[in-house]
Amino acid sequence: MNNPIKELTKKEWIIWLGSICIVCVSNLLTTDFDLLTLVAALVGVTSLIFAAKGNVWAQILMVIFSILYGIISYRFHYWGEMITYLGMTMPMAIWSMITWLRNPSGGNENVVKIQKLNRKHIIGLIISGVIVTAVFYYILVVFDTPNIIFSTISIITSFLAAALTMLRSSYYAVWYAANDIVLIILWVLASMKNPAYIPVVVNFGIFFINDMYGYISWKRRERIQL
């Protein structure tokens, strides 16, 4: 696999470096600096800019981010986030990595070919989404998860985002953006109890911007490929 950084456009360099700067400043200025949160954010924004390119390195970095974010969620007892990212997002990122490698776009083996969803895909997403939400909601209740409503919404948005990534659909980014909004709310609630989590709120705000760019980028490539 080639170096994905070499394939970034000038606009993508600006988005990536701008995101990194904002993340670093927001994390370093807090009175309760947490290195793990900063590293996770840097891995996350890098994964998202590669995902916007449809580059398989995005999924490799997503596996790393899932582990780091799972640890951060564990520390605040956000069991839903921990279980979702370690038990669902990470395995699906590995699956997506394999799927993307098997479906390259044209002559570039590092860039995935976009797939248009059919009726079977949509029905499968609805059924599996309902099942996953029901199972994980029960788990959240058992663990007495705080802010359980938003945690449950986060599960379904995370699942759809990961599933659509695996299916190579441009709508993966829309659901990740929706998940970012939910996570912003969750970590705002957490930061009210512990200000150390304020940088996490900023991090997901940056993730939202990157995910929206990812959707625009994929739709542009989709018009060329399909």
TrEMBL record:
This is Nicotinamide riboside transporter PnuC. Belongs to the nicotinamide ribonucleoside (NR) uptake permease (TC 4.B.1) family. InterPro entries: NMN_transpt_PnuC. The keyword Zinc does not apply. The gene is pnuC. Keywords: Cell membrane, Membrane, Transmembrane, Transmembrane helix, Transport. It holds the Pfam family NMN_transporter. The chain crosses the membrane at residues 12-29, 35-52, 57-76, 82-101, 122-142, 148-166, 173-190, 196-216. It is found in: Cell membrane. Its main location: membrane. NCBIfam families: NMN_trans_PnuC. The keyword Magnesium does not apply. It is a multi-pass membrane protein.
